[in-house]
Automatic annotation (TrEMBL):
PROSITE patterns, alphabetized: HAMP (PS50885), HIS_KIN (PS50109)
EC number assigned by the record: 2.7.13.3
Domain HAMP: 214-266
Enzyme class: transferase
Keywords: ATP-binding, Kinase, Membrane, Nucleotide-binding, Phosphoprotein, Transferase, Transmembrane, Transmembrane helix, Two-component regulatory system
Catalysed reactions, as listed in the record: ATP + protein L-histidine = ADP + protein N-phospho-L-histidine
Protein's UniProt name: Sensor-like histidine kinase SenX3
Domain Histidine kinase positions: 281-494
Single Gene Ontology MF annotation: ATP binding
Species: Streptomyces blastmyceticus
Compartment(s) where it occurs, according to its Swiss-Prot or TrEMBL record: Cell membrane
């Protein structure tokens, strides 16, 4: 599979990818899926344990109370027929003792009331039979009720006794109270068992949670990997589509997007190549006639003083415009070399301050520019290209800024190494904040009304390319006190020799 790289468009920056941090991983989709899965598992386990506990507790207590009621009824049916009604007090006490002795397994406490009389034996104030229970029994209804005695659960049972033959009320009421400590202990053991079972269930749920998260995130990881390849220029990257779910639809959409992007970039690449070839061809073809025109204009310009005023003006105008055209053609040729990758550095050990000083002298700017050029700042640079950089920035400051223009050269030490800074500042109105991001764009002019200005709109773009060749940067900003500041930031390479 061929590796198709993104075209080198002006201002294009390749994306920088960062490794996921621990905080990012903790807040990632995998962690959230696992946490959600565990929460659902924990909720399901707790709900199941709660329902199971409720059902088991109800079953335990119901079994206890049913057993107690049946046992009490059985004892009453077997003991009461031995007594003659109406019952005397001694008979009531004897029946109470016999029923209490018969309920040894249940450990119940027996109380009797006969024909609305007092309880025999008298009930403990802490274990008084609930009034609601007594009213039901007086109405001839067997009843039971759970009660709390000194923080412990108890069960109270009441049975009205009727004559077996006539089914008439005998006036005897039998009450039994029994502790539910064993049942409560069984319920607490059930709670602990449910808790002990829920924790391993939640822990075991982490395994299917990780498996499920992996299955869900695999297409997402493939999509991320493919997106990075697309961003890196591998436009023929495609995802393998499996299934018919939403993630499969997302993969198909990504493939459609990648295909459209590949076609569009291929078309842009073709158009850019054609535009570069056109600019280079036009510039090359214009050089020969321009050379001839320049030679003729130079001759005419020498004799302009002997011509009549109108003809002299026309000759000087032609000479000026021919010079502009020649500079524009040279700029186009230069930018074409950058686009074609044919621009090369010829590094040499130079005195930076002396190089900048020669640039100012060659253009007669010594009186217009305040230069701060310390001695002893040496670096390996391409003198011709640094001359172009300084000339373009100073010329731009003189033309569009305000005097005085200052040029400062200094070396600066940083953690990444020594840097060479060349700063050009003016005292003009500064650069419009909306214009700042575009000052290095090709053919960009802040004022659209200056369609016929002397500049070609390529000077700052050529400056940017020359600085990039030196592995440096150039920045444009507005000074706090007014005016524009352009800063060239280059690595301060040292050492002799020349290289291409």
């Amino acid at each position: 599979m061929s590796r198709r790289l993104l075209p080198r468009f002006p201002g294009f920056r390749r994306p920088e990818f960062r490794r996921p941090t621990l905080r990012g991983a903790a807040g990632g989709l995998r962690a959230r899926l696992v946490v959600a899965f565990l929460l659902v598992a924990a909720l399901a386990a707790l709900t199941t344990a709660g329902l199971t506990f409720r059902s088991a507790r109800t079953a335990i207590l119901k079994h206890t109370q049913d057993t107690a009621i049946d046992s009490l009824r059985s004892q009453v049916n077997s003991q009461v027929p031995d007594y003659t009604f109406p019952l005397t007090s001694s008979a009531q006490m004897d029946l109470s003792r016999r029923l209490a002795a018969a309920g040894g397994a249940q450990r119940w406490i027996i109380h009797l009331r006969y024909q609305g009389g007092p309880m025999m034996p008298a009930a403990d104030t802490n274990r008084t039979i609930p009034q609601g229970l007594q009213q039901k029994v007086r109405s001839g209804i067997p009843a039971f009720q759970r009660m709390d005695v000194d923080g412990s659960p108890w069960l109270a049972i009441g049975l009205p006794v009727t004559f077996k033959d006539t089914n008439q009320d005998s006036g005897l009421e039998v009450y039994a109270q029994m502790p539910l400590r064993e049942d409560e202990a069984n319920v607490q053991a059930l709670v602990k068992a449910a808790q002990s079972g829920a924790l391993p269930a939640v822990a075991l749920a982490a395994v299917p949670a990780l498996i499920a998260a992996r299955g869900v995130l695999r297409p997402v990881r493939e999509l991320r990997r493919a997106s990075r390849k697309i961003a890196a220029g591998e436009l023929d990257t495609r995802l393998r589509v499996t299934g018919r779910d939403e993630l499969a639809d997302l993969s198909r959409t990504f493939n459609d997007m990648a295909e459209a992007l590949e076609e569009n970039v291929a078309e842009l690449r073709r158009m850019e190549a054609n535009s570069r070839r056109f600019a280079a061809d036009v510039s090359h073809e214009l050089r020969t006639p321009l050379a001839a025109m320049t030679a003729v204009v130079d001759v005419l310009d020498e004799d302009a003083a002997s011509l009549d005023p109108d003809t002299a003006y026309a000759v000087r105008l032609i000479s000026e415009e021919t010079g502009k055209l020649a500079r524009m053609v040279e700029d186009l040729m230069e930018i074409s070399r950058f686009d074609a990758g044919a621009a090369a550095l010829h590094l040499d050990e130079v005195d930076v301050s002396e190089t900048v000083r020669k640039t100012l002298q060659a253009r007669g700017w010594q009186e217009k520019v305040a230069a701060d050029l310390p001695e002893g700042v040496r670096a390996r640079l391409d003198p011709r290209r640094i001359d172009v950089v300084v000339a373009n920035l100073v010329g731009n400051a003189l033309k569009h800024g305000g005097e005085p223009v200052s040029v400062t050269v200094r070396a600066e030490k940083r953690d990444t190494g020594e840097r060479l800074l060349i700063e050009i500042a003016d005292r003009g109105a500064g650069i419009d904040p909306e214009v700042l991001p575009h000052v290095f764009d090709r053919f960009f002019k802040a004022d659209s009304a200056r369609a016929r200005s002397e500049g070609s709109g390529l000077g700052l773009a050529i400056t940017l390319e020359n600085v990039r060749l030196h592995d440096g940067t150039v920045r444009a900003a507005n000074a706090p006190g007014g005016g524009a500041v352009f800063t060239v930031d280059l690595p301060l390479r040292r050492g002799g020799g020349e290289e291409a």
